[in-house]
Amino acid sequence: MTLSVLPLPSSAPVKPRPDPLASSFATTYAGVVAFIAVAAEGSFARAADRLGVGRSAVSRSVQRLEDQLNVRLFCRTTRSTTLTHEGDLFYARCHTGVDRIVEAVEEMRDLREGPPRGQLRISSAVSFGRQVVAPLLGEFRRAYPEVSIDLVLSDKPTDFISDRVDIAFRNGRMEDAEIIAKQIIPMQMLVCASRGYAQAHGLPATVDDLAHHQCINFRLSSGRICEWEFKINGQLRKFLPNAALTYNDAELVLQAVLAGQGIAQMSGYLICDALRTGALIPCLAQHAPDDRAHYICYLSRQHLPSRMRVFIDFMTAKIRAADLQCLPDLAILAQLVPA
Question: Any idea what DSSP says for residue 327?
Answer without folding.
Answer: G
